[in-house]
Design a protein that fits this description.
Layout lengths: L1 H22 L11 H19 L3 E3 L2 E3 L3 H10 L2 H18 L3 H20 L5 H23 L3 H43 L10 H18 L3 E8 L2 H8 L1 H17 L6 E6 L2 E7 L3 H17 L2 E2 L5 E2 L3 E8 L8 H14 L5 E3 H14 L1
Parallel strand pairs: 8-9
Antiparallel strand pairs: 1-2, 3-5, 3-8, 4-5, 6-7
Length: 369
Amino acid sequence: MIFKELISNLAILMACLFLYTHFTKSSTLYNTMSLRLKLFMGTMAGFLSNLLMQYSMEFGETMVDLRHIPILLTAYYGGVIPTLITMGMIIIGRFLISFSISSVTAMLLIVAVTVSALLINKLPTRNSRIIAMLTSSNIIFTVVIMYLLQDVQTLLFLIPLFWGISYLAGAVAFYTIESTREMQMLVKRYKEESLTDSLTGLHNVRQFDEKYNFLTKEAEKNKENLSLIYIDIDHFKDINDTYGHKEGDVVLKQLGELIQNNVREKDIVSRNGGEEFTVMLPDTTLEEAQTTAERVRTAVENYSFVLTNEKIIHITVSIGAASHPETSQAHELIAEADKALYLAKSSGRNKIVPAAAYSSHRTGYNEMS
């Protein structure tokens, strides 16, 4: 029966830890976490400890369980604040079950475990902290249980069993949190990489499409301005042919940073492939978009691009701009900005052409035809 109750404690502990890490996957678990998360962590650990007490082994009024494991976890991951919250909830929960010499002794036990865990958490290496915390709590338990129970036969069976289950529970608890967090971080990283251009760190085409679809719908729904500028490096093929594709990548990376530094924080910069970049400008008129485009064009023209061999080169860009509702419907911004970019490149490069100008040029061409 004793073994059964301790295994039940272990199963409950694992299930709760898995659920906690699942529902808080975007939150870090270290001393630098926010106060709000520390309070939440301490409260959840306190509830877990009280749940474990409901499945305790009972020897008269003495209760044996794994309530100390959440204390060790909060001390290791959260520091003082969540650990003290957990300790307080354990003490209150134990006194609500009964008030006796056993509950008072249990209070002293959990205080001693808390203090030792917080002190041990200052050790330099991860494994030494975990092992020392578990060993210290087991020693404290042994001293207390020997005081409370006088049955030598029970103690000879209970103490080794508790030490074994306690070490197992601690190892599995820390492993569950670490492995689950590692898996969540990998998934998060892969997700970010799938939406980010690996060379420049900007949004890639996939992320651009998601942002574009969302912003165009919002602009049409709320009758707001939305502008888009298309940026293309002039004669980029010559750079690759002259200096090599590796140096071309260096130029692209520096250009991405330069564009990002010359737009607003809320503007969305993407690399849409090759030497082509876009900037989506929410709540922006065509005139304001042209001002931003000119700032980018000038910055690029005046910038010294440094290659890996320390050689300095200069480049220019051509830019097409379109704006909803001034030049096109929101869902036509890409096509109109791209056409304006084509006109900018075909009419001399190193210039900005708004979509309206393209429309005028097209109309005049059609009339002449």
